[in-house]
Amino acid sequence: MCDPSDAELVAAAASAGVTRIVTVGIDGASCRAALAAAEAFPQVYAAIGRHPNSATGFDDADLAELAALAAHPRCVAVGETGLDFYRDGAPRADQERAFRAQISLAREAGKPLVIHTRAADDDTLSLLNAEAAGLRVILHCFSMPDRIDECLAHDDWWISFAGNVTYPKAEALRLAALKVPVERLLVETDAPFLSPQPVRGKMNQPANVVMTAQALALERRVGWDEFDAAVEASAAEVYGWSG
Fold first, then answer.
1. DSSP-derived secondary structure for the chain
2. 159 belongs to a structural domain
3. The pTM of the whole model exceeds 0.90
4. What pLDDT does 243 receive?
5. Is residue 80 part of a domain?
6. Per-residue pLDDT tens digits for 2-11
7. Which of 11, 88, 141, 216 has its CA 20 to 30 A from that of 119?
8. What is the domain extent for residue 67?
9. The CATH number of the domain where 213 resides is what?
């Protein structure tokens, strides 16, 4: 979904100091593209999932396809999955069926679960509480600042902040970010969306994650090198990579 080419995006990210990228599939075609990118570039990994807005008609064949893709050694997570009642891009019953199936797939694959939730906080958290015990959960593009304490009560949930945490009106998100132990904090782009404030209005790309991370380091009043190393360690812990 990002411009320019994968090679240019990866090179720009490397120049900015980004050593690893997780690119996210939202349906069968984009999952295969994510894995192709992960095969092409050693610093790129893939998350394999069916986005709630792409969940219409989700069935056993779709799950079988995801399971086969998720078995790839360059896949480090299942998702994004979850619930999106803001767009209602797919029937809610289909979203929930796909969500439950991907929770089970993450458990079977032994990989973390990446969650997308929008305008569905109660239902998302209820389903996770009921069915995702023992899983590593990544709350992608965190958007529930009023529920941060509830989320942090799960010591195997990671909280991931995107470029919108840098926006002037996002004070509640920044306050939530202060509460997250650094060993459970992640930083992301959600590229090509949610470009951080210095490049807001332009298409986002992986290199821009550094701007968001620097803003969070300032907010938390810690040095850049310390914060950078801590978030890198947090990502290594949840995704299971090393080196």
1. --SS-HHHHHHHHHHHT---EEEE--SHHHHHHHHHHHHH-TTEEEEE---GGG-TT--HHHHHHHHHHHTSTTEEEEEEEEEETTT--S-HHHHHHHHHHHHHHHHHHT--EEEEEES-HHHHHHHHHHH-TTS-EEETT---GGGHHHHHTSTTEEEEE-GGGGSTT-HHHHHHHHHS-GGGEEE---TTS---GGGTTSPP-GGGHHHHHHHHHHHHT--HHHHHHHHHHHHHHHH----
2. yes
3. yes
4. 52
5. yes
6. 999 999 999 9
7. 216
8. 6-239
9. 3.20.20.140
